[in-house]
Design brief:
By secondary structure, the protein is mainly alpha-helical. It has helices at 2-18, 21-27, 33-52, 59-83, 88-95, 98-109, 116-137, 142-164, 171-193, 204-228, 234-240, 243-256, 262-289.
Length: 291
């Protein structure tokens, strides 16, 4: 009972915390997205290091930390770049396709095959994604949508990797390594892909928003979600993030006066319904097994 309650609190707080990320990054514009992502992860690693200091990390977790950092770099690099190329609503909805991708992987590998209701959820969510893409077609935002989907795939890999550690999982030890390596890989990416000339540096105010993105969505939000993986499946953790598009769209409306188009709004709702439908049976099964 206590473990279920703790997991529910971690998932709820984590979902709310990560919902601020899109707003903070949008307010940090026109900072280069790779630089903004690298700074977020680097600052987060510095914040987490004193908390993780002294914790024993197994060789397996250390290796996983490097891979997790690469997945973090792909996730944040592509997703932050998508925010300047599509709406907040579309970006955060598409990037939270993570749980659906995990279900598809489970079905393809034959491990933990999805039930019929989960397949129905996948179909509904795909309709939502198509609606979002259709709504953005006239706005020239399909490239931004594609970047968000790449970010979703990378986060699915991160959740699967963290869960696969089993008894070796230490949320703080993994989080600080993933953030540190992620900042390193993003720094390398900047050297490789940024054209000649300096990337757009953050202003003083922009840097402040990036610090908030490091502390609230990353240190608080992602660490709580990683911690929950010790007691919940990746799909259940992914389901909790389904609240992010709704909250981020609400924050964007209240904070940035950004109201999504009707098609994008409908697509967001349909995609979220697909996620909830596809994951409901899994959550119920897990809850029943805990009694």
């Amino acid at each position: 009972m206590l473990d279920r309650r703790r997991t529910a609190i971690e998932l709820a707080l984590g979902a709310v915390a990560i919902s601020f990320a899109a707003i903070f990054f949008r307010l940090a514009e026109p900072t280069d997205p790779l630089l903004a992502s690298a700074l977020r992860l680097g600052i987060a690693a510095l914040c987490l290091w004193p908390l993780a200091r002294g914790r024993t990390a197994t060789p397996r977790l250390k290796r996983a930390g490097v891979i997790a950092g690469l997945l973090y770099a792909i996730h944040f690099g592509t997703w932050v770049a998508s925010l300047s190329r599509t709406s907040v609503a579309a970006s955060v909805t598409l990037v939270t396709a993570t749980p659906l991708l995990l279900v598809v992987v489970a079905f393809a590998t034959g491990k933990d095959r999805p039930r019929p209701i989960q397949l129905a959820g996948i179909a509904v969510a795909c309709v939502g994604v198509l609606l979002i893409g259709g709504g953005d077609l006239g706005e020239g935002q399909l490239f931004g949508d594609a970047l968000a989907l790449i970010g979703a795939a990378a986060m699915a890999g991160y959740l699967w990797l963290a869960r696969s550690l089993g008894a070796d999982l230490d949320s703080l030890a993994l989080s600080v390594r993933a953030a540190g390596w992620g900042a390193f890989f993003l720094g390398i990416a900047m050297l490789l892909v940024v054209p000649l000339g300096s990337p757009v540096l953050p202003t003083g105010e922009g840097f402040g928003w990036i610090v908030l993105a490091a502390v609230i969505p990353q240190v608080l939000g992602h660490t709580l979600l990683t911690s929950a993986l010790g007691r919940a499946t990746p799909s259940e953790v992914g389901l909790a993030t389904a609240a992010e598009p709704v909250l981020s769209t609400l924050f964007a409306w209240l904070w940035l006066a950004e109201l999504p188009t009707e098609w994008v709004l409908v697509g967001c709702v349909v995609a979220l319904l697909g996620v909830v439908l596809g994951m409901t049976r899994r959550a119920e099964t897990s809850a029943n097994a805990a009694y």
